Amino acid sequence: MKISDVKFELKRYEYYETFHITGSSRNVAENIEVKVFLDDGTEGIGEASPSYRVNGEIISSLFSLESTVKEMIKGIDVRDYAKVFKIMDGLSKSAPSIKAAIQYATLDALSIEIGLPVYKIFGGSKDTIETDKTISIDTLERMVQKSIETFSQGFHTLKIKVGESLKEDMEKILAISEATKGAEYVIDANQGYSPKEAIQFANFLYENKVNVKIFEQPIIWNDFEGLKFVREASPISIAADESVRTKYDAYRLIKDDCVDFINIKLMKSGISDALAIIEMAKTANVGLMIGCMSESSVGINQSVHIAAGTGAFAHCDLDSHMLIKEEKFRGKFVQKGSTINLL
Amino acid sequence: MKISDVKFELKRYEYYETFHITGSSRNVAENIEVKVFLDDGTEGIGEASPSYRVNGEIISSLFSLESTVKEMIKGIDVRDYAKVFKIMDGLSKSAPSIKAAIQYATLDALSIEIGLPVYKIFGGSKDTIETDKTISIDTLERMVQKSIETFSQGFHTLKIKVGESLKEDMEKILAISEATKGAEYVIDANQGYSPKEAIQFANFLYENKVNVKIFEQPIIWNDFEGLKFVREASPISIAADESVRTKYDAYRLIKDDCVDFINIKLMKSGISDALAIIEMAKTANVGLMIGCMSESSVGINQSVHIAAGTGAFAHCDLDSHMLIKEEKFRGKFVQKGSTINLL
Q1: What is this model's ipTM?
Q2: Could you give the CA distance from residue B3 to residue A273 in angstroms, rounded to a whole number?
Q3: What is the DSSP letter of A23?
Q4: Are residues A310 and A183 both part of a single domain?
Q5: DSSP assignment of A36-94, as one string?
Q6: Rg (CA), chain B
Q7: Pair B126, B231 in one domain
Q8: Which chain A residues contact residue B311 at CB under 8 A?
Q9: Which residues of chain B fall short of a pLDDT of 70?
Q10: For the whole model, what pTM was predicted?
Q11: Which CATH number does the domain housing residue A40 bear?
Q12: What dihedral do alpha carbons A176, A178, A180, A184 form, nearest 10°?
């Protein structure tokens, strides 16, 4: 069946609590829900959760793309989804979240047509994945409190936001680690440290036996040599997040041995580049995690299906839908605490 | 539907004419046809065309794997084909042709289950591909004669086998080029030259304005530095064939900038590594061609569907089924001369 129409809809979601990370604090997420309609009325759904901070995306500008995108892909049979993927690759630089949403909505429509869930289109590697939950930047007391609460809800891995003050971060992490024994941590500095600060922090975590799985994006995104310098000095695994948007970024980082892990987000890479990054990283023995922006259950659903289908991720950070107020859950999965079961 | 049985069948095909390449001359192809049966009786078909020269594969040893492979994948739902892919990756070193055949047969069964041709499972990038046809090593006169005949049958690109004598090869190529004006050539030395000979030959082709698209595997497979040396000195594109079996080989060659092109063959890499190589090569701006061993129409069908589905190949060398005597054509495609249309 051919694509007959494309529709964009603006969505606004309030956060339960202020989401504070290095250099950014927000109470509201503004997303664009996209629908791809087929000749026979079938509709595929996807969601773009744009990021100005990471992608330079402006929501009003993305929203204005509706008719352009429709003209680009109208008439294509969803069974030829690679054609849609290729056309959307043209938006990799300027509108990757729209690229992701349209690519996914196309797969969603195909999935309905052929009666095969999207994660099975990718091979159905797993039926279940585990996600962490994020503790955003706050006072030491409130971060400890929140960590205890989240850990007790069954989230074995806590993602801790740091990066605004090395000294305070050290105190906070020690206190959290003390209060949630048995937990595992992903530490995310969101580019907040200098390379030397990052190494100091990595050594501090290691020496204090904090159970850190991954230390994400310690320094500014564009300093690949700096990342390599930190990686080589750090006793714990270093991940790139903001540094990797396209597969070309990933190739450069991998080729130059800059990182231990790559954090793939569909909102940075779309599905096409995500798949390329997965293959490259697996081949080069670089670890993979998958993360999110501010997706609702519609957008998180996309990453859940890619993660389960490919089975490529050592860690999933797919929690934004738990942090925002959503009228109705619309994922094609069932979640209980940290455990996500595919449908 | 779950996999309930796996069957191997030995097949023997005679070549119409002796197939002579550097270091090898053969009149017979011995392949293994594999069938994957599902609970409901659906059968998926694939073919292994083993190579001792490239893979070290011995057909009797491969044939003895039938029950082992069956035990490995029995009970897996073909909708979870990634699980079969992963298990078959264990045979990458020892039995890549069996890996390819089982991976494809699984997809073929899935394709029947969901009513979607295999090339559409890969996204349906193209409905049509073009193949070359091979002129094997022979006397100058007979190679010229064969080239004229093949070119007049509508094969725009001729694949010319060389590598046993630099001086004779130069004379042969000039004569062929003179006799088939307007044609394009892929020159394949199958590891026959030294690095210096390879550079001499590349310069000779360039200076004599022979219309060469790709110069394949000029030197011994294991000399990656030599390939890089040849590539840097050659004015025409250098491809690796025997040097690339797994995705790890490809990664190393790409990372070290050793080649302009990679020749993917499912019989070397299976489908899983082929897909990884495609993503890496596309990202790194390394060209891609797809080739074959001695597959019948059953095995060529596999490569045809991967080539059309991914749309990744600048050149297709999928001609072995035209060189052997086969009782019945069994590809899920229609061919007229060099043009292959998918069904």
Answers
A1: 0.91
A2: 32
A3: T
A4: yes
A5: EEETTS-EEEEEE---HHHH---HHHHHTTHHHHHHHHTT-BGGGHHHHHHHHGGGTTT
A6: 19
A7: yes
A8: 82, 86
A9: none
A10: 0.95
A11: 3.30.390.10
A12: 80
| DSSP three-state, residue A243 | coil
Nearest to A195 by CA among A249, A258, A250: A258
Instruction: Identify whether the C-beta of residue B261 lies closer than 8 Å to the C-beta of residue B11.
Output: no
Indicate if A168 and A78 belong to the same structural domain. Answer: no
**A55 backbone dihedrals φ, ψ, rounded to 5°:** -105, -10
Answer yes or no: are the C-beta atoms of B2 and B169 closer than 8 Å.
no
Residue range of the domain that includes A264 = 121-342
Determine the Cα–Cα distance for residues A194 and A184; give it in Å rounded to an integer: 25
Residue B328, C-beta contacts closer than 8 angstroms, at least 6 positions apart? none
For residue B252, what pLDDT is reported?
A: 97
**What's the confidence (pLDDT) of residue B246?**
97
Chain B residues bordering chain A (beta-carbon distance below 8 Å)? 77, 79-83, 85-86, 114-116, 120-125, 247-248, 250-251, 255, 275-276, 279-280, 282-284, 309-311
C-alpha span between A190 and B322 (Å, rounded): 58
DSSP B69-132: HHHHHTT-BGGGHHHHHHHHGGGTTT-HHHHHHHHHHHHHHHHHHHT--HHHHTT---SEEE--
CB atoms A83 and B282 under 8 Å: no
- If asked whether residues A137 and A75 sit together in one domain, one would say no
Q: In terms of domains, do A108 and A232 share one?
A: no
Taking phi over 0 as left and psi of -120 to 50 as alpha, with beta for the rest, A112 belongs to alpha
Chain A: residue whose CA lies nearest to B282? A276
Q: Which of B70, B99, B172, B265 is catalytic?
A: B265
Q: How many domains does chain A have?
A: 2
Segment A67-110, tens digit of pLDDT: 999 999 999 999 999 999 999 999 999 999 999 999 999 999 99
DSSP per residue over B271-320, as a string? HHHHHHHHHHHHHTT-EEEE--SS--HHHHHHHHHHHHHH---SEE---H
- CA A255 – CA B280 distance, rounded (Å): 11
The helix, strand and coil proportions of chain B, stated in percent and rounded to the nearest 5, come to 45, 25, 30
Report how far apart, in Å, the C-alpha atoms of A289 and of each of A15, A79, A306 are.
Answer: 24, 29, 12
Tell whether the torsion through CA atoms of A152, A154, A156 and A159 is positive or negative.
Answer: negative
At which of B62, B93, B116 does a domain end? B116
Chain B partners within 8 Å of A255 (Cβ): 255
Write down which residue in B94, B116, B138 finishes a domain: B116
| Nearest to B285, CA basis, from B264, B260, B258 | B260
Helical H segments across chain A, by residue range:
52-55, 59-63, 66-73, 81-88, 96-114, 118-121, 140-152, 166-179, 195-207, 224-233, 247-255, 266-283, 297-310, 320-323
Whether residues B21 and B35 fall in one domain? yes
User: Is the same domain home to A283 and A173?
Assistant: yes
Has A161 been annotated as catalytic? yes
